[in-house]
Amino acid sequence: MAQQQRKATDRVRLADVADAAGVAISTVSRVFSNPDRVNFQTVEQVRAVAERLGYRPNPRKHHSAAAAAAVPERSPMQPQPSPTMPTADDTAAHSRSSSAYTTNPASSAYSANPASPANFAHSASQSRSTTAVSTSTSGGVIALVVKDTTDGISSQILKGAQIAAMESGSAVGLIEAGQSQPRTQQLLTHLIGKVDGVILATDSPGIDFIRNYAKRVPLVVLNRPVDGVPSVVPDPRIGVVRALTMLRRAGHTAVTYVSGTTSWANQSRWSCLHDVGQRMGLRMNHIGPVRPTVEGGYQAALALENSKPTAVITYNDLIAAGIVLRLTADGVRVPDDVSVIGFDNTLIAPVVTPPITSIRIPRDLLGQTAVRLLLGRESGAVRNPADAQLMEQLKDLGVRNEDEQSANVTLVDTSIIVRRSVGERRAQ
């Protein structure tokens, strides 16, 4: 049976436009009553759908609906505002935790209505100094979408994101998407029209999906660069240089890298280690990949016992912990027989015996920078003099990051946290 066509006398409702555009009814109402409070991609999309359906707005109706939407009904996935303000000690602790950068956030009172929509305006083609997706300073809801909330990493990102969001009276909600790519993409699609911006901290969605999604929702991607989309990624150079310098001073001449996943992050770390290590005269070896877990570290330890390296750097702290635990159980002493360095500086690194030296990625600063981009603000980060001097030396040596010239990528420096898992090279 042929599809029944809409008659010219049929009344097109607000709900019809919202359903066809894939947004909330309140969003359609704001498009026609107060478009400055809706990101411009959504405005264009809704108006195009309305034109196609033949919808004619009623100004009085929309102004009334807009007033009612000042305190919108919350989706179950939207975060609830917390009446608890962070203490001065909490803020000070955050500042002390970041050694790669120093920040000076200007704190302001929490908005009485953190769910009020923000005027996020997306622009992925701006220059590096102004890479931003919003010019709003009013409150809004930002979704931080992660793969796993139990790894200790997402909580660090959330902490920095919340600090930056509070500067403008915004709120950040944490959403766990899991491992499934279809589920992650379905969840992200469901957020359209329900949040004012998204920080994507999972590698599950495909590149094409991310690019199309960024046309509909203000978006910042963490931990991997995506062409045409604002991205905040760790720059491993400073942390890697300091780690390899420490090993070389301890007499090590060769370093084995234990690969985790086949992700962009893994390739970035290995490429940097290989490039810097060769310039330092170190012999760089590579094994793996293994699972990025403690169990994966157990497996790697068996291979390492056969090759007998004196220094090991791993993809993450979980692998490093597994290696230390297994080697210790087999009678191989850390760091007397082999030095071990992890990546990420997560909660497991200081609790293993011996505590693990780790290349620190300031996850809190990643979250803070992402929110500032969404709000159209400068990152607020300043490189300390020692790191600035080291970076200039690396550039003189030709050690560069291929993403530093990208207009839509913001790099965040790494550092190193020294613990007792690194020692002098053993006698041969």
Automatic annotation (TrEMBL):
SMART domains: HTH_LACI. Pfam families: LacI, Peripla_BP_3. GO terms for molecular function: DNA binding. InterPro entries: HTH_LacI, LacI/GalR-like_sensor, Lambda_DNA-bd_dom_sf, Peripla_BP_I. Residues 54-133 are annotated as: Disordered. It comes from the Bacteria. Residues 97-133 have a biased composition (Low complexity). PROSITE patterns: HTH_LACI_2. Keywords: DNA-binding, Repressor, Transcription, Transcription regulation. Gene3D superfamilies: 3.40.50.2300, lambda repressor-like DNA-binding domains. PANTHER family: HTH-TYPE TRANSCRIPTIONAL REPRESSOR PURR-RELATED, LACI-RELATED TRANSCRIPTIONAL REPRESSOR. This is LacI family DNA-binding transcriptional regulator.
